[in-house]
Every structure is written in structure tokens, then in C-alpha cells.
Design brief:
By secondary structure, the chain is of the alpha/beta class. It has helices at 26-42, 53-57, 59-63, 80-85, 109-112, 136-140, 148-159, 185-195, 213-221, 238-244, 250-263, 282-294, 322-347; strands at residues 16-21, 47-52, 68-72, 93-94, 120-125, 144-145, 164-169, 200-203, 228-230, 268-275, 299-304, 351-356, 362-365, 370-372, 382-390, 395-397, 403-404. The strands form four sheets. It has a five-stranded mixed beta barrel with strand order 12-13-14-16-15. Strand 7 (164-169), helix 8 (185-195) and strand 8 (200-203) form a beta-alpha-beta unit. Helix 7 packs across helix 8, helix 9 (213-221) runs parallel beside helix 11 (250-263) and helix 12 runs parallel beside helix 13. The radius of gyration is 22 Å and the shape is globular. The structure holds iron/sulfur cluster.
Length: 415
Amino acid sequence: MCQGCQAASGLDSADLVILNSCTVTSAADHDLRQAVRRARRANPAARILVTGCYAQRAPEELAGLPGVTWVVGNSHKAQIPDLVLSAPCQSRIHVGDILAEHEFLAAPVQDAAGDRTRPNLKIQDGCNNRCTFCIIPSVRGPSRSAKPDDVVAQVRTLAASYREVVLSGVNLGRWGREPGIRMRLAGLLRRLLAETDVERIRLSSVEPMDLSDDLLGLMASTPRIARHVHAPLQSGCDTVLRRMRRWYRASHYAGRILRAREWMPDAAIGADVLVGFPGETDAEFDETRRFIAELPYTYLHVFTYSERPGTPAASMPDSVPTPVRKRRNRVLRELAAAKNLDFRRRMVGQTLSVVTLEQERIGLSHNYLKVELATPRQPNLIVEVAIGGLTPHALQENRGRSTLSPFSPARRPPN
Ligand code: SF4
């Protein structure tokens, strides 16, 4: 929060509305434009500031939307407080060369606590890869990492109030690869385990090239790191992976996933998959489908390819017709649902370590399954929950057989 500003109780009482935009798909762009319209309708007097990736990619487009006062790119995010608190006559667009950014811009630790039970701490930004479908490198800039001491201090602060801390980044597995930080992600995790009393750390997403034996072995060795591996796949077919300019091949990827399963039999294993990439033939899609069918996934995030202006893939030939893209998406979603059901069935009769969420009867297991609790619990506890059955999309607690985690007493989020 800027100096001198206070959070408004609702949209209609705000003087200033800040919208942090995403531009990873055309649907995200559409959602942002709708959010601007909604904000303007609810409160025509409020000034609207749009920041984030869409602002970085297409500032003029956003500045042309009725009601938008400022457009601030990722390159200028740190200047938002000065901008909104200074005199009103200034230019509307504040966007610079994000590719020249080499310093990690740390957000205040309170920002990580937006989620009142599982704070999300960004420790890495940007990406040096150039996947041909992806707009992110041009709007987030090169890979850069939070300093290890800063991460330790922030996790220590969060651990005083929360049970689970999620570490995130645009390309989290690349944390620490710049000159000056002589440590990899596994080294950072060891420091966090040794120097903080955080009860559970969860990794958001790690590219398959960075799922080293060292990292997987560490995850398997301690209950303080959630048994949850999310490794973007995008395609299970090598010819498509090559066109996407992804740096691994399907066999390497499969090896990493099988290793994770071997060392963590009860882990959540998930992936992002992109269907309908230009030129993806029926045979190539089927190769991906079979590849996924054979791996021990517990969930998938399936995305339908959409052309992003400014990416190499947007001008590739052999665009896949929209109905075909949608059908492929549905096929993989159905496959993912079947795998998720199998995994949940395996959990019935087991006892899982679960963090209780804001909704008083819902928890999230260490292996990323929603659990419907038999009785209301206060949020932000870790409880050992005996699983008695299934609901359509979650697990169900076996009434009367669960216990509080032996680790430590309840911690309450700050008000
Ligand atoms: S690794 Fe991820 S963020 Fe980086 S270019 Fe590829 S898809 Fe985009």
C-alpha cells in the first residue's frame, strides 16, 4: 500500500483502482478490458491505473480505453506510489525497456499475504527462454532472482503467521542462476528449512530441465516441502516441442516425472499442456495424448493455443481450426479428470496432512487435493485428516478420526 493510501472497503468507495494485468492469452486481455469497464461503471469518479504484462505489451491500446488514467508497465511498477501521489498533470503512459531490467524488484512481504492461509511469495521474475508461443519474456524481461538472505527473512516473517508458504516465479527453477548468487533452488530450500520454522513450503512450478535429482531428493526427504511437482509439459511430441522451442524432449521429461513418482509415491504431479499449436497434426496430438496417458499425472492444466501478437508462433503456417483446438482440449481434460479420480481413490483410507483454508470446511492436502472437512475448522491450521471418501471433485474427511498436526500450535494470520 502506498504511503498515505488506505485500502477501500469496495470498488464504489475507491479513489484509485489498480488493475494488475496478465496477457498470457487473448482471454486474459479480454478479462482485463472487462474489468476496466466494470470499475468505470461501478465508480466513474475513480482514477484507474492499469499495470502488469498487458500494460507492458500494449500500452496505447489500454490508454485508449475510456476511464483509464495511467498505464504503467512492469518496467515502472516501482514508481506507482510516486505517480499516484504526485501532481495530476503528467503523461498517461509509463513503460520502458523491460529487457534492460536486471534487478529483482521485491514486493513488500505483506503483498504475499493476499491469500490469508497460503501466502504466495514471488522469488524469481522474468525468463531467458524463448518458447515460440509465449509473450512472457518480452513483458517480464530476463530472469532475475530475489537475494537468498531476503528470501530467508521474508519466509521467516511469513512463517510467524502462516503454516504454508508457496514459492513462485515466472520460471522458478531458474532461481539463483545469475552471476552473484552461488546457489540453486535446492540450496535455497535447504537454507529455508534450516533457518526458518516454516512448517510447509510448496513450489509453484518448475520446468522439467530444473527438476534435478538433488531437488526431487530433497522434496522426498522432508514433510516440510509439499509433495507436489508441477512441471510444464506443453506437448508430449518431440516435433511439436521443437517448433515450440522447448529445450527438452519427451523422453527426458518422462524420466523426470517417473523419478518424482518413484521417490514420492503419494505426490501430486501436474503439468501445463498446450493444444492446437500451429501445425499440430492429429497424429502429433495423439502422441501427446498417449504420452500423458502413460504418465502418473494427478491433474493437468490444459490450455488452448491462442495467437499472441509479437510471438514467432503467431506467424507460423497451418493454424489449427478453432473447433479442433477445442476438441483436443476436451479430450485432455477428460483424461486429466480420470487420472485425478484414480489418484483420489487411492487416497481413501489414508491420513493426509492438510492446511485449513479460509472457507471453514475446506482444506488443501500436502499433495494438492481439496478436502471437505467433516466439521468446521478455523483457517490456517495443519491437521492430519483421515480420508473416508470422495465428492465429485474433492476428498471427504472420515468423521472423528482426524487430529491436529503435532508440529506446533495454531498460528493466526495477522488482521
Ligand atoms: S519457459 Fe515459460 S515463461 Fe519462459 S518462454 Fe517458455 S513458456 Fe514462457
